Amino acid sequence: MLPKPQIVNLPVYQPGKPIEEVKRELGLDEVIKLASNENPFGCSPRVRAAIEAELQNITLYPDGSAAELTEVLAGHHGVGRDQIIFGCGSDEIIALIARAFFVPGDETVMADCTFSVYKSNADIEGAVSIEVPLKGGTHDLDAMLAKIGKKTKAVWICNPNNPTGTIVSDSELVDFLDRVPGNVLVILDEAYAEYVTDPAYSNGVALLSKYPNLIVLRTFSKIYGLASLRIGYGIGQAGVIKLINQVREPFNTSRFGQAAAKASVTDHEFVAECRTKNRDGIQYLNGQFDRLGLSYFPAHGNFIMVDVKTPAAEMFQALLKQGIIVRPGFAKYPTHIRVTVGSAEQNAKFIAALERVLSGSEARV
């Protein structure tokens, strides 16, 4: 049985190590997972009631068009209902974009250290990924623009960037979009947008009316705390969204996901509270890293990428033994780990464990 030749050596996506597995393997009673950028403060209190109301419909297929959620979200963003598409997480929207637009031999431009799903989906469709080095941990938009050629179908910009947490400003993004050829898609992944407090940050949705080749991705997995319900969305011009919808599988989001998202998106107080607590957590961690003499990238999402001055895989294992799960494995940054900003208690326990490892009181592997 012969598969597509381009997937033979394709790496399988490795999610953050599960809490249950670590407890079982190491015999630990408490494990803190700071590896997958989940919201440590949970989800809106409105979600439970919304899900309980859907239990009576558990035998029914979900609304394939997510009509009620679309109506609420269109009002929230001030866009047309025909400008929105939903997916099983925003990573499914990435896969659908690749499926809809890429043919073998097409080229797509992205950073060399960014969300890996862009490249893996391009690989599946036989497209060629042009990877441009980050500049100070940030997208080098001028260098990315220079790589756009006749075969380029799409450019990916993760803002804030995963894993570095850096942003490009509104002025930088607008200058870039002004120079990108109109036949090249620009996919702006704003999965962590709701966490950003920097006034220089761009609101991609506000740019859609000016740039018909722009698609903005958002998700309910991060600040809204609905990671297990797998629901994300894309916003773009109606004609572009229609093309992506043509390759979407029916019923790709659940009744529970739709109901929870609809309840969450209008709870502005919960989002604001999480944003404030996350900013406080970033300030605490930055202060601790400064005290420990560790450098880090400016964090604008709900995670920080920090240089621990030792092979990241070793630090991962040493922290794991103390019940702290972080994220290593960034080829361009072999001594960096990515750590999710947790609750105040979780952050303090992470720093205590990190300091023990760095001081040598806990042996590295």
Automatic annotation (TrEMBL):
Uppermost EC category: transferase
PTM annotation (N6-(pyridoxal phosphate)lysine): residues: K222
Subunit structure of this chain's protein: Homodimer.
NCBIfam families per record: hisC
EC number: 2.6.1.9
Pfam family, one: Aminotran_1_2
CDD domains (UniProt xref): AAT_like
The reaction(s) this protein catalyses: L-histidinol phosphate + 2-oxoglutarate = 3-(imidazol-4-yl)-2-oxopropyl phosphate + L-glutamate
Protein name stated in the entry: Histidinol-phosphate aminotransferase
Gene Ontology molecular function, alphabetical: histidinol-phosphate transaminase activity
Gene: hisC
Lineage: Bacteria, Bacillati, Bacillota, Bacilli, Bacillales
Functional pathway: Amino-acid biosynthesis; L-histidine biosynthesis; L-histidine from 5-phospho-alpha-D-ribose 1-diphosphate: step 7/9
Cofactor(s) needed: pyridoxal 5'-phosphate
InterPro entries attached to this UniProt entry: Aminotransferase_I/II_large, HisP_aminotrans, HistidinolP_aminotransfase, PyrdxlP-dep_Trfase, PyrdxlP-dep_Trfase_major, PyrdxlP-dep_Trfase_small
Domain Aminotransferase class I/classII large: from-to ranges: 30-354
Family statement: Belongs to the class-II pyridoxal-phosphate-dependent aminotransferase family. Histidinol-phosphate aminotransferase subfamily.
PANTHER family, A to Z: HISTIDINOL-PHOSPHATE AMINOTRANSFERASE, HISTIDINOL-PHOSPHATE AMINOTRANSFERASE 2
